[in-house]
Amino acid sequence: MRISSLISFIGFVLIIAGCYCRLLVFKVLVNWAHYDIFGLSKPYGIVVLLMAVIGILAIALDRRALIKLSAYVSLALITLLFAGVVFQVKNTLSSLPFNFLAQLLSKAIRFKWGWYVLFAGGILAVAGTFASKPKPIKHTS
User: Fold this and answer.
1) pLDDT (mean) for 31-36
2) 36 φ/ψ angles, rounded to the nearest 5 degrees
3) Verdict on whether the full-model pTM lies above 0.85
4) In what side-by-side order are the strands of the sheet with 31-35?
């Protein structure tokens, strides 16, 4: 296994692990419903997992184009998920009639460490695609 494939493999494993980490916590009086990626959007979480599994299979089958495609799509999906969650939180709370209540509830929503795992996995998966194909060694006699 090449070093670039190993880096991509670690990235895809981090994406799979990040899908089950805590992403949001809503603290009002107690911790209420901490969400993983499946609590936020089940079909979207399944697509992120599917892209990571496709990437791992492409590494096992040594398909460089499929590894690159899976890595870029995974990073784009994670970025889109983060932007969607931020937009959903801001948009939902801005429709409240009292401004102070919206500010109080926005302070109660915390983004957790699972986002770091997801983004680290996506970035590592993409970083593994930057390595060029190894050049054959020419022997001179």
Assistant:
1) 52
2) -100, -170
3) no
4) 31-35, 24-27, 109-111
